[in-house]
C-alpha cells in the first residue's frame, strides 16, 4: 500500500476500493502515516466526497481498527441512540433506562461536551463516584444485570477515529459528511450494536442549521449504518431553543431525575424522549407499531421502572445507592442563584440557543480547551419555553453561578438573548422529520 497513491486517486475524483481504504486506515491506526498524509487524505475526501460504498468501507475500517465488543449471551436486542448535540439535550439520560425497562440492552458509549453543546459524560460525572471508564467486564455486567450502562469511549474502541479526528480538527475538514458519518458510526459499530436511532439536530443551537444540511447528514448516517448491517433510523429535531428547561451539568442531572419521577409531562423534552424510545423499540422488533411502542415507554415511566433502572445503573457504576431518594445529598448546588427577568411584556418568540450554550461555558460549565476542568454546579434552570406569555420582570430562567459577578453577567446576557413580541410566535414542531 502506497499512501500517496490512495490520496492522489481520491484527490483526482476517483472511487477507492474497500481494500485501499482498509489498508490506509490500518496504517493510520498503527501510526505508520505522517500527519501530512492524514491531512491530505481528509482534505481530498472533503473536496471530492465519497460514495455510499466508500463511506461504508471507511466506517467499517475505522470500527475494526480496535476492539470490537460482543454481546453474545445477553439474550436481549442490543440497541443505542446517538445525538449530534444541542443545548439542554439530556435525552440519553432518560432514554437508556426507559428502553432498558422495556427489555432492550443499551451499551451506550457517550462523549463529553463539544463546542457549545453539553456532554452526557460531563453530566454523569456530577454524580459522586460514577465511573465513566469501567473495565470491559464491569461494563458487560452492568448491561447484563441492569439493561443499560452509559460510559465513555476507551482508547481501544475505534482508535483510528480519534487519530483522524485530531487532524481533521486542525485542517478545517470536520464538516465533511462522509467523515462525520464514519466518525459517528465507527464507534457504534465497534460497540456491537444491532440497532441504532439517530437524533440529528437542526437550528441555531445545532451544528446543522438548515433542513437541507440535516437531511443530507441524516440520510448518510442511515444509509451507511444500514449498509454496515445495523438497523437504523433517524429523527431530525428542532434545536432553536434549549430542549430541557435546564442547561448545565448538575441542573440537567436534576432535570433527568425529575423527568424519571414524572414531573416533566407535556414538555418538548418528553415528546422527544418518547419518540426515540418508540423508534428504538420498533427497530428492535419489540412492538408492531410506534403507538404501541410509545405506550410501552410511558408505562415504564409511570410505573417507576425506568427510574429504578437509572438508580441501579448509577449505583452499579460507583454512584450512591440512594441518589433518586436523596439527590440533594449528592448533587452539589452552585453558591449563587439569580433570577433572569423578562425585559418587557409579550411572548417569548425567539432565542439564540447556541449563545445559551456558550454562556454555560462562560460560567465554567464547559471547556474552552480539552484539558480544562469544569464546574459541574453552574448553568441555567427553570428556562421557560418559547411561546410563553410573560410580563416585564417575570422570571424566565435561573442562573446558577460560582460568584455574584458571573451570575449578574450571565443573567443580563440571557435576558438580552430573548426576543419578546406582542404576538404569539409560530414555532416549528420539535420532531421535524423522520429519515
From TrEMBL:
<protein>
    <recommendedName>
        <fullName>Thymidine phosphorylase</fullName>
        <ecNumber>2.4.2.4</ecNumber>
    </recommendedName>
</protein>
<dbReference type="GO" id="GO:0009032">
    <property type="term" value="F:thymidine phosphorylase activity"/>
</dbReference>
<dbReference type="InterPro" id="IPR035902">
    <property type="entry name" value="Nuc_phospho_transferase"/>
</dbReference>
<dbReference type="InterPro" id="IPR036320">
    <property type="entry name" value="Glycosyl_Trfase_fam3_N_dom_sf"/>
</dbReference>
<dbReference type="InterPro" id="IPR018090">
    <property type="entry name" value="Pyrmidine_PPas_bac/euk"/>
</dbReference>
<dbReference type="Pfam" id="PF02885">
    <property type="entry name" value="Glycos_trans_3N"/>
</dbReference>
<dbReference type="Pfam" id="PF07831">
    <property type="entry name" value="PYNP_C"/>
</dbReference>
<dbReference type="InterPro" id="IPR036566">
    <property type="entry name" value="PYNP-like_C_sf"/>
</dbReference>
<dbReference type="InterPro" id="IPR013102">
    <property type="entry name" value="PYNP_C"/>
</dbReference>
<comment type="pathway">
    <text>Pyrimidine metabolism; dTMP biosynthesis via salvage pathway; dTMP from thymine: step 1/2.</text>
</comment>
<dbReference type="InterPro" id="IPR000053">
    <property type="entry name" value="Thymidine/pyrmidine_PPase"/>
</dbReference>
<dbReference type="Pfam" id="PF00591">
    <property type="entry name" value="Glycos_transf_3"/>
</dbReference>
<keyword id="KW-0808">Transferase</keyword>
<comment type="subunit">
    <text>Homodimer.</text>
</comment>
<dbReference type="InterPro" id="IPR017459">
    <property type="entry name" value="Glycosyl_Trfase_fam3_N_dom"/>
</dbReference>
<keyword id="KW-0328">Glycosyltransferase</keyword>
<comment type="function">
    <text>The enzymes which catalyze the reversible phosphorolysis of pyrimidine nucleosides are involved in the degradation of these compounds and in their utilization as carbon and energy sources, or in the rescue of pyrimidine bases for nucleotide synthesis.</text>
</comment>
<feature type="domain" description="Pyrimidine nucleoside phosphorylase C-terminal">
    <location>
        <begin position="347"/>
        <end position="421"/>
    </location>
</feature>
<dbReference type="InterPro" id="IPR000312">
    <property type="entry name" value="Glycosyl_Trfase_fam3"/>
</dbReference>
<comment type="similarity">
    <text>Belongs to the thymidine/pyrimidine-nucleoside phosphorylase family.</text>
</comment>
<dbReference type="InterPro" id="IPR013465">
    <property type="entry name" value="Thymidine_Pase"/>
</dbReference>
<dbReference type="InterPro" id="IPR017872">
    <property type="entry name" value="Pyrmidine_PPase_CS"/>
</dbReference>
